[in-house]
Design a protein that fits this description.
Radius of gyration: 16 Å
Strand order of the largest sheet: 1-2-3-4
Distance between the termini: 30 Å
Shape: globular
Helix content: 40-55%
Structural class: alpha+beta
Largest sheet: 4 strands, antiparallel
Order of helices and strands: HHHEHHEEE
């Protein structure tokens, strides 16, 4: 089970279904890559936010997108490079886009939008995890 649940096995399988099925990658093989992506995210934004995000506070965007991009990169890079090195460019682009977004969050250029199940609304998470403006 993934530590922080910024993304999950089903989301990665849905987004990369054909390649995951073709390579015969199992859910058990996917999970450690999600954990690696989430650990990288937490490490990069820990100075700006209290991470992992508290129970009942579900980060939406761009954290979920970053987790999917980095998790897919970690998962697919070794398989693709071994199976078909000529296709490794698109896997590297997953990393580049994820890193670009992660840098934006870490530098404060992008805000984290979260959903709080006790408040029933989404909001921008402020520095060190405090709620700021209600988004909707």
């Amino acid at each position: 089970m993934s530590t922080n649940s910024y993304t999950n096995v089903d989301e990665l399988r849905r987004r990369h279904q054909k390649v995951i099925e073709t390579l015969g990658i199992t859910p058990t093989e996917i999970e450690p890559h999600i954990n690696d992506a989430e650990a990288e995210i937490n490490g990069a934004i820990a100075r700006r936010y209290s991470v992992p995000f508290s129970v009942g506070l579900y980060p939406l965007e761009p954290v979920r997108t970053i987790a999917r991009l980095l998790g897919a990169h970690y998962l697919l890079r070794s398989y693709i490079i071994q199976e078909d090195p000529s296709r490794s460019d698109w896997v590297e682009r997953l990393r580049e886009r994820g890193q670009q977004l992660l840098d934006g969050v870490a530098e404060g250029k992008l805000d984290v939008v979260a959903y709080a199940d006790n408040a029933g609304s989404a909001f921008v998470v402020g520095r060190r995890g405090r709620a700021q403006d209600v988004v909707y």
